[in-house]
Amino acid sequence: MAVSGLLRARVGILLLPRRGIRVMSTTMDALKPLIAVCQMTSTSDKEKNFTICSGLIQEAASRKASMVFLPEAFDYIGGSTEETLSLAETLKGDTIQRYMSLARRCSVWLSLGGFHEKGPNWETDRRIFNSHVVLDNTGHIVSIYRKTHLFDVDLHSGVSLKESKFTIPGPDLIPPINTPAGKVGLGVCYDLRFPEMALALIQEGAELLTYPSAFTVTTGIAHWEVLLRARAIENQCYVVAAAQTGSHNQKRSSYGHAMVVDPWGSVIAQCQDGIGLCYAEINLPFLSRVRRDMPVQSHRRNDLYGKVAMNTND
């Protein structure tokens, strides 16, 4: 009960009635499905992280959200490489099984934004995938995207992250998947910086792009919102970005500001500080109007600069 009360106090929604409280309609418009986007602060305590995520998901389901988006590293964030690897699991492990049960019990789709999945040669190389797993409302896995662009940086602020030290780059992109919220193209965090990937997903029919993230504070302040809005504007799609926020341990903090951007580039929902949710209606007729009134895709000069194509290794 204490967790549920905390979550209700920290729901953040833009452009809605006073104090961020929204009165929910009992009749959902099928053309405007409601989604919920989560913000949390993962630590190395997997049980605590699950309790927080479970509370967020149940809160979203009670408000009739059709799909809930969790951030990268929703399962945990370790304090060292050794701890990160020691906590990794397979897709058949306890963590994913618990989320399958939760999706089924709440009858809601889940975007599990970045799961530490043991790689195929785990016993010999101790390397993992950063895996974005999507579950349907019966608890079945419908898609798995393994992060292709790995975050290897040394920032002037002193932050140094070498994801490739222990993470295997994903082998391919995944075609957009049909969900109650529309056709969703999957990415993870650093993928946001690569417009070619977004374009490839759009050309395969994506209506939403999602970038569950754990952006650093330095890069978040400078680039987070502008990159999300840019991907939405140039691709005329919704962009959904669940986020980690706050201090995970003595070495690492995240920027937060989970948000949803519409196809015109407007931020239509955003989380406040701390753990919480924001909600947005995905207005597919509006998306169609934007694309019809400004037909950017048909104006592309592929004869001059080629066409971005998706390689799925099929």
TrEMBL record:
PROSITE patterns: CN_HYDROLASE (PS50263), UPF0012 (PS01227). Residues 33-284 form the CN hydrolase domain. InterPro entries: C-N_Hydrolase, C-N_Hydrolase_sf, Nit1/2_C-N_Hydrolase, UPF0012_CS. Keywords: Hydrolase. One of its GO terms (molecular function) is deaminated glutathione amidase activity. Its EC number is 3.5.1.128. CDD domains: nit. Pfam families: CN_hydrolase (PF00795). Belongs to the carbon-nitrogen hydrolase superfamily. NIT1/NIT2 family. This is Deaminated glutathione amidase. It comes from Pelobates cultripes.
